[in-house]
Amino acid sequence: MKKWYLLLLVAVAIGGIWYYLRTYVRYRPEWDKAKFGEVTRGDIRVPITASGLIEANERINIKSEASGRVLEINVVEGDYVKKGEVLALLKKDDEERRLVQASANLDRAKAALVKALVAVEQAKQNILSAEARVEEIKGSGEIIAIDLEWAEDIKEVGGASEKELRVLRTRARINKAQLRNADANVKIAENNLLDAEQNVIIQQAALEEARQQVEDAEERLSETTIRAPQDAIVTEVYVAEGDLVQSATQGFTGGTPVMTLADVSKLKVITRVDEADIGRVYQISPVDALPEMPQLKEAARENEELLEKRSGRVKLTVDAFPDDTFEGLIERVEPQGKLNKGSAIIQYDVHVEVIDEHRYTLPLGTQAQVEFTVESVSDALLVPAEAVMTFQDERGVWIKTPPPSGSLDPFGKKFIPSRFGITDGAHTQLIATVTGEEIKEGQSVLTKLPRERKEED
Q1: Residue 248: CB partners within 8 Å, gap ≥ 6?
Q2: Among 181, 240, 247, 369, fewest CB within 10 Å belongs to which?
Q3: Do 250 and 360 share a domain, yes or no?
Q4: Residue 71 and residue 216: Cα distance in Å, rounded?
Q5: What is this structure's pTM?
Q6: pLDDT surpasses 70 at 155
């Protein structure tokens, strides 16, 4: 029982001590105390920077138009090659067989065209023959008509019998039927000529297709020797001797990648700039580098004050050479912002060409920091960045004041709405107070409010 009394007395004593400290001494634990900073005067410099990789002007993916097994690889990563230089050789057997087959198809197409042309000439002769038959039947019909007319004339004087007349009339009907049949044969012969002429057109197209197949086969055969399409540096080789390469024109997968070249005649950095900074990047970009937005470039050209600042010159630094800086030029600013993965920040791609005379020392793929512009002020009134707070929807600072009369608090505080300039993350430029009150160098400002005071406010 005495043990419980003892524990109760200890708890009461602790509670009493805590109440006394809170009420009369105003004790605060270290984590609950206010923190202060000091108003200073000095210079502040805020660069607009972004990062990206040193990239080649163009990446060239080398694929073969031919299929075959790799016989030779003549380059390795890092080699600089000239346009037309042999990069690799493939076995020619497959492409030679395709050329032989294409050549045979061409010979067949030539023969088929000759046959079609002969058929046209034959059709023309058939028309002449059919037309001659028409003339022959017409001539026979005229003779029959004369005989019939003579027989009818002499019948009245008993010169021709009824039988003879009937025979002549029948011959006349037969002649007319023969004439109709001959006319029909002419039409058939003319249609056959049209068919023969159309067949010539078809065979000419087939011949042209066969010629194209031969040209393609010859080109694919030549592609078994893989050459550099332009001056470039070899960055990656994907195949080795003995590997099988699939044609880029015949495979469903787009062909086998052989190697990648990089055009290093120009170097560039594609970097992403936060949306909060893109406006100032616009202001220093050359007019031709701005997005093709309606009236944007026209307005930029009309602003003579900013036009003088549009040099587009930027500074680059790389980890590989930390003591050196390189010069760049803004080449293009993309118009569409992109959401940065993993955050809610919108960023804009800016293309920067490296124009420094020592750019050849920069390794491809190295990380580069691009400094677009610098905002700076000299001899400015500065407050700690943590001192800039918002109170009742206004931005300002809490200044330390004498404690209220009779208060046991060690200090008082007052919120002064203010206007601020640039910040480097550690200090913020204090331009002026909204109320006109003066904040002087050396004055104390709160960088952290006590928790309970926040609740009271």
Answers
A1: 63, 64, 65, 254, 255, 256
A2: 240
A3: no
A4: 22
A5: 0.60
A6: no
